Amino acid sequence: xxxYALLRIFGAIPTMLLVxxxxxxxxxxxxxxxxxxxxxxPPEIEKNIAAAYHLDESLPRQFLRYLxxxxxxxxxxxxxxxxxxxxxxxGDALPVSLQIGVLALIIANVAGIAAGIAAALRKxxxxxxxxxxxxxxxxxxxxxxxxxxxVLIFAVYLGWLPASWTGGTAITRLILPxxxxxxxQIAYIARLMRASMIDTxxxxxVRTARAQGLKTRSIVRYHALKPAMLPLLSYMGPATAGxxxxxxxxxxxxxxxxxxxxxxxxxxxxxYTLVMGIVIFYAALVILxxxxxxxxxxxxxxxxxxx
Length: 307
Description:
The protein is an all-alpha fold. The model has no long low-confidence stretch (mean pLDDT about 80). It has 13 helices and no strands. It is flat, with a radius of gyration of 24 Å. It has a domain at about 90-250: MetI-like (MetI-like fold, Orthogonal Bundle), CATH 1.10.3720.10. It starts with a helix and ends with a helix.
């Protein structure tokens, strides 16, 4: 298992290099520059600023300089937030996104898995159709529609919850963002779990367990749950990375100072290093979580671990 993990980590190095190169080229290909929004400066001062941030060098030289900084754990200085390092900016925004993301993941997994199992056990009944219909609606309606609707209903009309991050207490300001972030994930998880559980319940070893007189609850808990979780794990790898780093739409709607909002601010102000740092952090998180998912496959299915 350790050898497999090390091989996967070393194999991810070319992927990370490709992500870094593409992100570097894309942010520098965007029109405008990091200091275009500032007031008009004399050419001498503009030249000094470009030299201070090495923007007067050729792109290959800038890329090699950036790679050298990454090897030393330095994501570079921010162009928008003067005197701030990108690593510190990500570190300050990450706890906020993690707080919302972890809560949303817990709710999504508990509700989605429970709904999927219930629909699979009562296939072709009213409950199954209800879960399937609600899940399809949750998948079809985008989050940039759901989040404003929740603000309109629960914050504006009913006045139960605050409409923004700064408008309530620590608990009340979390409810709307967490639910808006969790609802699409509940829909996806419920559909995946329903389909996987139906296939697992129709397998031969489950029929053998039924023939031995085991109750449905025992069959699901001890025989069907782990194999049915395998397709869900494939989805949860990249989905967890997206949820934990914060949804751009959710953080914009609720004015949450997380990684998603930092990415938008950096992109709008052409803060090359901030955008690059967030892209690299997200890519590394996706690779790490996919590795964790592959290792969990072996825990849930001994046949995979043996191979």
